[in-house]
Amino acid sequence: MTNQPDQRFTMILTGNKIKKENKKGNITINPFDCDNISTNSYDLALGNTYIEYAEEIIDPKRNNDYSEKTIPESGLLLDKGSFILASSQEKIGSDQYVPIIHAKSSIARLGLFVHVTADLIDIGSHGTVTFQLYATSSVRIYQSMKIGQVSFWVPKGNISLYDGKYANSNGPQPSKSYLSFKD
């Protein structure tokens, strides 16, 4: 018999609870595949598009130029020092739990930093996850590869749902930091 934690102190959902909460509609993971559930997270697959900034110097006060490209089925080689924005195949979100994005350790061990920053997804935000990918060594990525994972955390306090600049995202999203600057 396993000791069950006091529910007042439960912080992270187990894989089985993620499955139940998704089925009840309290968590959005679409498409959902039971094979992607782990002990306390859900594996996320890489989508088929990515963004590259077109400018050498990126200015947070401007809407910087970028191009959106498709990851070839044969894979995309990221040279050492490359930085791109890609997204999950899955749309995720919750109005009750806080999704947190993590890299898969197997991918990190290849020298690919995934979502090093901005891992906290706001309650009420539903959409694809934009992964920030930085290659510390040359590495090849593929459409549909398991690249990250999401865990769901129980918030404490009153919930205000997110309604910001990245709401309902679909595909990789460039920075919209320029919207935070006042002229």
What would a concise description of this structure say?
The chain has 183 residues and is mainly beta. It is built from two helices and ten strands, in the order αββββββαββββ. The protein has a single domain (10-55, 68-156), classed as Deoxyuridine triphosphatase (dUTPase) (Deoxyuridine 5'-Triphosphate Nucleotidohydrolase, Chain A).
Topology at a glance:
Blueprint: H1 15-24, E1 27-30, E2 42-53, E3 66-70, E4 76-78, E5 83-94, E6 98-103, H2 105-108, E7 112-114, E8 126-135, E9 139-141, E10 146-153
Antiparallel strand pairs: 1-5, 2-3, 2-5, 2-10, 4-9, 5-8, 6-10, 7-8
Mean pLDDT: 92
| Oligomeric grouping of the chains | single chain
Number of domains: 1
N-to-C span? 62 Å
Radius of gyration: 17 Å
Tally of individual helices: 2
CATH topology heading: Deoxyuridine 5'-Triphosphate Nucleotidohydrolase, Chain A
Low-confidence stretches: none
CATH class (first level) name: Mainly Beta
- Relative strand content: 35-45%
Assign the structural class, choosing from mainly alpha, mainly beta, alpha/beta, alpha+beta, or little secondary structure: mainly beta
What's the CATH architecture?
A: Distorted Sandwich
Estimate the global geometry from the Cα principal axes: globular
- In the CATH hierarchy, what is the superfamily? Deoxyuridine triphosphatase (dUTPase)
What share of residues is helical?
A: under 10%
What can you see in these coordinates?
Helix content is 8%, strand content 36%. It has 183 residues and is mainly beta. The chain has one domain (10-55, 68-156): Distorted Sandwich (Deoxyuridine 5'-Triphosphate Nucleotidohydrolase, Chain A), CATH 2.70.40. The longest helix is centred in the N-terminal third of the chain and has 10 residues, at 15-24. The termini are far apart.
